[in-house]
Amino acid sequence: MPQHSTIEICRADLFTAKSELELRYTENVVARIMRIREEYNWFLSNPDSKDRQFVETAMARHGIEKSAAYADLKVVKALLPHLASATRDFHRYRYNEMILETFQMAKKRKDTKTMEKAASSYAKFNRVDLEDEQVVPYDMIVVQPFTATDDPTVLGIKPIPNIREKIRMLLNKYRAENIDIEDIEFEEADLEETDLFDMEEDDGKQEENIL
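Request: output the structure for the sequence above.
Response:
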């Protein structure tokens, strides 16, 4: 079996049920995952805490050495970029945990009505009534062949008879009608504005009005 780092394992199974973890990993690995899970949840509840506080809390709660606490802190910090998705996973985990706890309490009281509601909520939330999604066999999908065409019948449109000949005739017709049109280059207009509008006299009048 290939060896995986603690960070890789926690990214994949931080909130996986303990019973499933025990089927996948050794006892020591499961114990550390459960410890890091608790430390991760503590970190989420205390986002302003310092590294020293994290280490002291881990040592007090789990009875581990300072070096082990710092190693756990490294793992927790590595998981922070995945905070958004991990938080959603955590809430899913907590929801299932609360529903199962409610079911067990109702079972002890022989409250079948609450047991039924809890079981229904658990099944609906985990979508156990739906079939597992099947992987789409993309390698089996055949690419649809396409061929370029100017035939409108493929779209259900009735073609115009002799369309190419009609296009040629229209082009010749409009070319003949516009034969006298001549393209010329742009030239600056020489308006001689000073002579046309007597700009100096107008400027003098404006100055008199201002004074």
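The chain has a mean pLDDT of 80.
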